[in-house]
Structure formats: C-alpha cells, structure tokens
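Input record (one chain):
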Amino acid sequence: MTKEEKHLWYDFLKQLPITVNRQKVIGNYIVDFYIDSVKVIIELDGSQHYTKEGETKDIVRDFYFKRIGVKVLRYTNRQINENFNEVCTDILAQLENRQHK
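The corresponding structure, as predicted from the sequence alone:
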C-alpha cells in the first residue's frame, strides 16, 4: 500500500462497521479498497493516473465496474494529504447513499 492508502486504511476505513477489503481482485483488476456489501470501490489516484495512458486505463476500468453494478469513488493522493476529513465525510455519505438503494 502507498502512504496515502495506509493513512486512509488505518485512520478511517479499518474502523468502519462494515467489511472493507484491501487490494481486492475484481475481474482482471486489483482495486485499492472494496466494500462488497454496498458494491463500492475506493481508488486513490497518484500521478500515474494523470497521464494520457493512465486516464485511458481508468476510463476502461470504471466502465467495466459500472457494467457489473459497482460504483467507483476516486480520490487523489493530494486530497488524502490535504483534505483527509472531507474525503472521509464524502466516503461515509456515498456509502450511506448506496445502502439505501
């Protein structure tokens, strides 16, 4: 795990009252975090995601996950480092929204 993934895991996701899987294989992909009960993936994007190739790969991945009914939440490493509480608040809101569907 990257420094940002460790921060999100140990300081937030690990304490959630639902099961969160780390480095989960789904299809041909490995996702950073996966919450099966609400079909949500959490991805933390580093600089490699902002190249043309990285952006194209993310579009293909996200389309695959959408087709199988899984929502992808993406946050930048910068957001984790500079706005951690806001990221956590957004994740909670997204999870609650998915639980009510």
